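This section describes the prediction task in plain terms. A model, or a person checking by hand, is given the sequence of a single protein chain and must write out its three-dimensional structure as a string of tokens. No templates, partner chains or ligands are provided. The sample shown here is typical of the held-out split.
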Amino acid sequence: MLVLLVFCVGLGYVHGELKADPNGYIVYCPCMGRFGNQADQFLGSLAFAKSLNRTLVLPPWIEYINHPSSRVPFNTYFKVAPLRKYHRVILMETFMKKLAPIIWPKGDRTAFCYSARHGSSDKDSCNAKDGNPFGPFWDHFGVDFDKSELFAPLYYDTESAHEIQRWRDKYTPDKYLVLAFVGPPASFPVKKHHLYIQKYLEWSDNINQKAEKFIEKNIEHPFVGIHLRTGMDFKRACEHIDQTPTMFAAAQCIGYRQEFGKTTEEMCYPSPQTVTKDVKEWVKKIKAKTVFIATDNNDFIDTMSKTIKKVKFIRQPSPSSPHVDLAILQKSDHFIGNCISTFTAIVKRFRDIEKKNSSFWAFKSKESKQKDEL
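The expected answer:
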């Protein structure tokens, strides 16, 4: 098998016209949180693959809606071609079917992790398949690991040429053609210098068309798009915001050094009164005719409609698509989101790339306050 592997890689192809990358591949399980977190860490993972000059294998998105976990192919939500303008990528489904049997054969698969995952039977192992979604993710592709590689003290610092060279020196493609990580090889939350990579993400035609169709049928411009996190899980998380002021995606509004302000519980879990106040302000500013609401729970329409008149409040009918929600919010004339939420962060990154205005519940940056005072 080793002779065949060297022969195939040397030729530059292993399956028809599909060429193997002699520089190697990065595979990972997006096993950290829901879609917002996965999208956040995807940017850093793509940057890491580019830094090592390895092809990134695009993992499916892990969802927890109707099952303990399910896997949705990457290109269900985003196009693949635009990503290749930044770096080489391949869908995991294609990689596992056409390349893995030869260049990453069963019996020779190594799991990479920073340190051993404790609480499992093997204390010196990554135990890459222990727990959900880890086990179901790799089982979906028929992957079992034969050994573990603990790569500490190396880290995913793409801004450090020295650190990246250490990765290249230690894990050369001739010995480690595939680096398979237990989790995303990226920091969380996303680093500031990786935010621009969002411009290479484009919604799939299906998601974009559904968003356009919904807007055309139900929304009159100009419209304000809002994202509300009103579930009890988020409420409990927000109770700890004083101890963890940079929680989740907080840097998107307060800055990476908290240079634009401080987080508060009201920013994290705004009251109906705060939501009504902020929406009313922006409806008036842009003379909005519609307010589109994306939420995981209470939409506050009853409260808002008592104060904000002559405006249409609307949300997707149940069962709604959160990805279509995101695409609609991206297209809004003004967007108000949750400073702490990584779901909001997806919209904010898109809108920043497109130079569209966004704001956050109960938050006004120090810069804005200074301008108002002048």
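For orientation: Residues 1-11 have pLDDT under 50 and may be disordered.
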